[in-house]
Amino acid sequence: MLSQVYCSGSQPFRQRLLPWVQSTALSRSRATDRVQPSAIRHVRSWSNIPFITVPLSRTHGKSFAHRSELKHAKRIVVKLGSAVVTRGDECGLALGRLASIVEQVSVLQNQGREMMLVTSGAVAFGKQRLRHEILLSQSVRQALHSGQNQLKEMAIPVLEARACAAAGQSGLMALYEAMFTQYSICAAQILVTNLDFHDEQKRRNLNGTLHELLRMNIVPIVNTNDAVVPPAEPNSDLQGVNVISVKDNDSLAARLAVEMKTDLLIVLSDVEGLFDSPPGSDDAKLIDIFYPGDQQSVTFGTKSRVGMGGMEAKVKAALWALQGGTSVVIANGTHPKVSGHVITDIVEGKKVGTFFSEVKPAGPTVEQQGEMARSGGRMLATLEPEQRAEIIHHLADLLTDQRDEILLANKKDLEEAEGRLAAPLLKRLSLSTSKLNSLAIGLRQIAASSQDSVGRVLRRTRIAKNLELEQVAVPIGVLLVIFESRPDCLPQVAALAIASGNGLLLKGGKEATHSNRILHLLAQEALSIHGVKEAIQLVNTREEVEDLCRLDKMIDLIIPRGSSQLVRDIQKAAKGIPVMGHSEGICHMYVDSEASVDKVTRLVRDSKCEYPAACNALETLLIHRDLLRTPLFDQIIDMLRVEQVKIHAGPKFASYLTFSPSEVKSLRTEYGDLELCIEVVDSVQEAIDHIHKYGSSHTDVIVTENEKTAEFFLQHVDSACVFWNASTRFSDGYRFGLGAEVGISTSRIHARGPVGLEGLLTTKWLLRGQDHVVSDFSEHGSLKYLHENLPVPQRNTN
User: Fold this and answer.
1) How close are the terminal C-alpha atoms of the chain, in Å?
2) For residue 740, which of 29, 171, 290, 492 is within the disulfide window of CB 3.0 to 4.6 Å?
3) Other Cβ atoms closer than 10 A to 668
């Protein structure tokens, strides 16, 4: 075993090391001692990778069961495969990737974790160096003998791997030293062979050296001593826990991880993870979680372009480490879009690569649920409209028949949320008999409207004789609806999905777990009457919302129902999947100079105070300048004071007052509470300009008795919902007569405003012909285009 310590900076090593030793003055024996949150060192702010501060406390002995637990990993081994470290030409190192990996390792090290690297690259680095030396030597020799400036083409001999490793080790380590220096971290090189693990004395020495380096906050960089390592032998010793030969860096990383009782082994290669068939084949699917025993159903491809181990060797090494109590993730360390954060993403529990786990979930994975929703949704779409309506009617009946069970489950959620959720969120979480009755009424409205939805002919065209084209309404596919603190959302969305023939994945907030569970069971009971139970799936696994948003091959539309922050997060996380919704509900009401005194206070009170947490609640009140210091204005202020609404003054409004309320910090604020911004405008046009500048295109209202002014406002305000003398709270699918809504959309494509049944449909084209070919319609062809509009058949909805 060879070991060498490299330290950065100009301070003497002992002087620089002392503060770290003092700050971590505890034994690093993994079996007993752990760093508590209070002992985590101050984190530097030199990196753009987000820091996480978590309790790094865990008893080793059993691997993590779920990805979400990886954030608690204390001791981590990162194995860098040859394909990750080397360039595409296999001669030299991929410096950009290495720099990114070093940065991520440094971030985790400075969070209080103990990082170790198992790295390839010495052979590639040495090959580059030896090729350069050979070329230089040959060119000098040739120039001396020929005396000519033009050199003949020189052949480079085949370079022996051990010689390349010997020439490359020092350069590789010097490179790592220079990179870790940028983050004030020390690194130590350790070269090992198989004997270092199988000779008991050498194994104890290696173990002691590594523990001492970790105790001193030094990152060990481990590699097989390829300058002396014997040729690879067949894989014959990966069956038991106690024996594994170090024949490549995969087996080395596994042996090291178990020997050092690490929490997590990250194996980076040039593929995304483990696939159920060779990557690149048509049916290959990335395996999210791999369980012992599953290897029998996997077909392994060839090994990577460089290195000694293929995916089969990685899986065997990973399973060996898993048996020894170390969690393992195999992921891609070469992809330019993810390599810059792949290690930190894995440690944060994000769905990256293949996670090896000994604990199989009780239910299906979210990928399996997505496939079931797709298959069930297609079956649902083939049902007759009357059958889909029957399912929804049955669900409406279940909401009232099973009322006591639903309210009991909801009571459990409320009790568990008490003291953890704010009052507005508790109100959203709460169910009542009246709410359930209203839900049942809304569902029956949806059932009635579903009679004329899927399959409805929108237009017919006769293209030519015996060639007719139809455009028909069809489901979008699979919807993912993510909702917070709103269990009443589940039956509404389920009914709309059933009516529109869409498969549905539901992800509710954990604060409504009990309520969501029983409501989902009722939805599946209703679906069962026509054999389509699996069309609606409730995601109960530990999948993060960000991971769900990456399932672009399974999900066709994401609909968030919750806070503006939730919507923004989903819009940011969604990769290639459309998101329907609004990030903010900044609703305005403009009180015109010709507004009715009797109407204004009623409309303002209802819009602001009836349900201030709703996205369609009033947030900014615009008042015409002529109404200041009038009885109407005084009535508005008195009413708001009685309702205990906190007023924020806009800049112009504040300028009119000697003692004004607190001036608003931003005119683009959604309060979601009993708070309101008041601003003054000089005209209806200025009100429209203000709405366009500070609004969110959700719902905006004018209060006036002047019809011409009202129509001008209605036509010129560019929002999803624009009202005249009506509360902003009417912006709702149920109140619009849609039965229910999946949300309110402020986007300009597809659906806008409250999105009901129609917003969950798209179209397809059906062309019926008789041996028609395009060449018949050419200049010298026998047929001519007619393009005649045909009457659209009316479906009987009675």
Assistant:
1) 85
2) 492
3) 15
Of 76, 1, 65, 81, nearest to 313 by C-alpha is: 81
Give the tens place of pLDDT for each residue, 467-506: 999 999 999 999 999 988 889 999 999 999 999 999 999 9
Beta pairing, strands 327-332 & 264-269: parallel
How far is residue 528 CA from its own chain's centroid?
A: 32
Q: Which two tokens stand for residue 487?
A: 């269990």
Mean of pLDDT over the chain: 83
Q: How many structural domains is the chain composed of?
A: 3
- Residue 503 is given by DSSP the state E
Distance CA 123, CA 484 (A): 53
In this structure, the answer to whether residues 512 and 598 fall within a common structural domain is no
* Alpha-carbon span 17 to 213, nearest angstrom: 11
Q: Which residue has the higher pLDDT, 148 or 627?
A: 627
* Range list of β-strands (E), 198-249: 219-224
Q: Tell me the C-alpha distance between 262 and 418, whole Å.
A: 39
Which range among 118-127, 151-160, 183-192, 538-547 shows the weakest confidence by mean pLDDT? 151-160
Separation in Å, CA 684 to CA 28, 534, 744: 71, 52, 26
Kindly give the interhelix angle for 433-449 and 403-417, rounded to the nearest 10 degrees.
Answer: 120
pLDDT tens digits, 34-75: 334 333 333 333 334 443 344 455 555 688 988 889 999 999
Pairing status of strand 289-290 against strand 354-356: parallel
Residues 525 and 480 in one domain: yes
- Polymer length in residues for the chain: 798
**422-426, 429-433, 786-790, range with the lowest pLDDT:** 422-426
Cα gap 291→356, rounded to integer Å: 6
Amino acid identity of 493? V
Same domain, 313 and 391: no
**pLDDT tens figures, 327-383:** 999 999 988 777 789 999 999 998 899 999 988 877 788 888 999 999 999 999 999
Provide the percentage of residues in the chain whose pLDDT is more than 70: 83
C-beta separation of 672 from 612 below 8 A: yes
Read off the pLDDT of residues 524-533 as tens digits, 9 standing for 90 and up.
999 999 999 9
> Could you give phi then psi for residue 466, rounded to 5 degrees?
60, 20
Q: Are strands 467-475 and 761-768 parallel, antiparallel or unpaired?
A: antiparallel
- Which residue segment(s) compose the domain that 517 sits in? 366-573
Residue 16: pLDDT over 50: no
Domain annotation covers residue 17: no
Q: Answer yes or no: is 323 within a domain.
A: yes
Q: Which two tokens stand for residue 49?
A: 């990778």
Is residue 122 within 8 Å of residue 190, measured between CB atoms? no
**Cα torsion through 220, 226, 228, 229, rounded to 10:** 100
One domain, residues 486 and 604: no
Same-domain status, 487 and 530? yes
Residue recorded with tokens 């042996």: 255
Q: Is residue 249 part of a domain?
A: yes
Locate 764 and state its tokens.
Answer: 């397809």
pLDDT at 150 over 70: no
C-alpha 520/C-alpha 503 separation (Å) is 14
Residue 690: partners with Cβ closer than 8 Å, 6 or more residues away = 588, 622, 667, 679, 681
Give the integer Cα–Cα distance in Å for 187 and 119: 13
Say which residue, 382 or 750, is predicted with more confidence.
382
